[in-house]
Every structure is written in structure tokens, then in C-alpha cells.
Amino acid sequence: xxxxxxxxxxxxxxxxxxxxxxxxxxxxxxxxxxxxxxxxxxxxxxxxxxxxxxxxxxxxxxxxxxxxxxxxxxxxxxxxxxxxxxxxxxxxxxxxxxxxxxxxxxxxxxxxxxxxxxxxxxxxxxxxxxxxxxxxxxxxxxxxxxxxxxxxxxxxxxxxxxxxxxxx
Length: 168
Prior knowledge:
The protein is of the alpha+beta class. 42% of the residues lie in helices and 27% in strands. A hairpin with a 5-residue loop joins strand 6 and strand 7.
């Protein structure tokens, strides 16, 4: 797992180490399976078809299977790690990429889920960081609501509070 390769700071512990949700692999798997099974059925039903038909079947099946294999490789190499001090994402098979943000710098967390994502427990986590103009997005987070709650619980309280009028 990614937590083994992650260099932890003194006193830091890993809270959660997770990969993207399996829904990330669903459509590539279904389409590759459909293409291969359709190719087999066509070869059995019409064994004496022309070579261009066989080539077209092979190319379509091969491309869809390559899409699934590539997506699976990305799934294997992608990790989202929550430690006691940081939120870290690692990805990449050949070139390892690494993104991290200190929990104390997190301004807001927002989750986005469609109906199907809510049914399977996947979702998108958007993280706003102090002094950063962009919002960082983590796609296909497994159990995104529970993960969001865990991150919220780990964010340290800084003591900055609004006044009576709601001004910071």
C-alpha cells in the first residue's frame, strides 16, 4: 500500500489508506466483457466470415480490453492516505506523483455524489486550501461521506472564531 512508501513525520500515524472505489473500473470491465463475449458469439455463429470482419472484431475487443487494463493499472497505483497530520494522494506506475496538504491548511471539504454514486458509496471530494486559488479534487473516493467526516475530525482547531457579527 502507499502508506508503506510514505515517509511519515515524527509522531504521525496513518489513519486511512484507500484506493479509488471499484466503480472506477465498472464500465471498462463491462464493455470489455461485452466485446469479448460478442466476438466469441459472432465467431461461433458465423465461422466462415471474411478476414476484415475478424480484424474489426479483434481491434474492437483489443481496444476495449486495453482500456480496462490501463484503467486497472491506474486504479492499482492510485492511493488516498489520511494521516494524523496530512491528506496525501499518490498516483502513477512509472513516475510516482505525490500531492499532500497539511490538515491545518484545509479551509473546507465538499463532497459531490450522483444518485448512482450514492448507491454504491463512491463520490468526489473537493478540498479548499487556505491561500490556494484552486480547489483540489479527489475523484471516486470510497465511502466519501465517512472519509469526509474522518478528515473533519482530524482538522486541528486553530482558535480563530468569528465575532458576534459573524466577521472573521
